[in-house]
């Protein structure tokens, strides 16, 4: 239903993935939208996972945040999620984010590392400054309230992955590079 919102985060449990900030952000989102849910899928450092479980309890999120573990096949989760959230301190080009984009999900992501290679702000997703919990919360809330904008972002993200970031396009770019080098 419209009052049920499923946010998905797919990342390993590591300090640089900022899932602690995501939990703080989600607490604020939940205060406005009690039907919201957050699934965190991944695996990683046991002490980070333990700390995230403790923080979930401290923030009173035991009923609304689920640690769903590592999933070989992400598609069942992507098919039912409404948003993909990806806060981080350090990134290359996150494969999990590409999966979310391929599924047509609107994505809210920290503006770090190589994410600008795939995210054009307000076109294929929303970029939020690193460590900006209030900004991250605000952008997710904005997209919850503006489903038309969320749908537009998801469709543009899906189109980008299928056309501009496909294997065929990558091969074409490598070929162009080689042909350019040969011409020189």
Walk me through what this model shows.
With 184 residues, the chain is of the alpha/beta class. It contains seven helices and six strands; from the N terminus they run E-H-E-H-E-H-E-H-E-E-H-H-H. It has helices at residues 19-32, 46-58, 75-80, 95-102, 133-145, 147-163, 167-183, and strands spanning 5-10, 36-41, 65-67, 83-86, 107-110, 126-128. The protein has a six-stranded parallel β-sheet with strand order 3-2-1-4-5-6, sandwiched between helices. Strand 2 (36-41), helix 2 and strand 3 form a beta-alpha-beta unit. Helix 4 (95-102) packs across helix 6. The longest helix is centred in the C-terminal third of the chain and has 17 residues, at 147-163.
Instruction: Please indicate the percent range of residues in DSSP E strands (runs of 2 or more).
Output: 5-15%
Strand order of the largest sheet: 3-2-1-4-5-6
Secondary structure tally: strands = 6
Oligomer: single chain
Question: Structural class, judged by helices and strands?
Answer: alpha/beta
Q: How confident overall, as mean pLDDT? A: 94
Q: What is the chain-wise order of helices and strands?
A: EHEHEHEHEEHHH
How helix-rich are the residues, as a percent range? 40-55%
Instruction: State the end-to-end distance.
Output: 59 Å
The largest β sheet comes out as:
6 strands, parallel
In DSSP terms, counting alpha (H) and pi (I) runs of 4 or more, how many helices? 7
Radius of gyration computed on alpha carbons: 17 Å
Query: Which word captures the global form?
Result: globular
Low-pLDDT residue intervals, each spanning 5 or more residues = none
């Amino acid at each position: 239903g419209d009052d049920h919102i499923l946010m998905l985060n797919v990342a390993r449990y590591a300090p640089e993935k900022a899932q602690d900030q995501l939990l703080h952000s989600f607490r604020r989102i939940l205060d406005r939208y009690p039907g919201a849910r957050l699934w965190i899928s991944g695996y990683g450092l046991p002490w980070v996972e333990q700390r995230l479980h403790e923080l979930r309890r401290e923030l009173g999120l035991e009923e609304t945040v689920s640690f769903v573990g590592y999933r070989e096949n992400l598609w069942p989760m992507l098919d039912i999620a409404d948003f993909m959230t990806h806060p981080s301190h350090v990134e290359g080009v996150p494969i999990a984010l590409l999966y979310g984009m391929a599924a047509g999900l609107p994505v809210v992501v920290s503006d770090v590392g190589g994410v600008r290679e795939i995210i054009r702000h307000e076109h294929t997703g929303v970029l939020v400054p690193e460590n900006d919990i209030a900004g991250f919360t605000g952008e997710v809330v904005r997209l919850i309230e503006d489903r038309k904008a969320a749908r537009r972002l998801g469709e543009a993200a899906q189109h980008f992955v299928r056309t501009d970031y496909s294997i065929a396009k990558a091969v074409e770019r490598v070929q162009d590079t080689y042909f350019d080098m040969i011409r020189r």
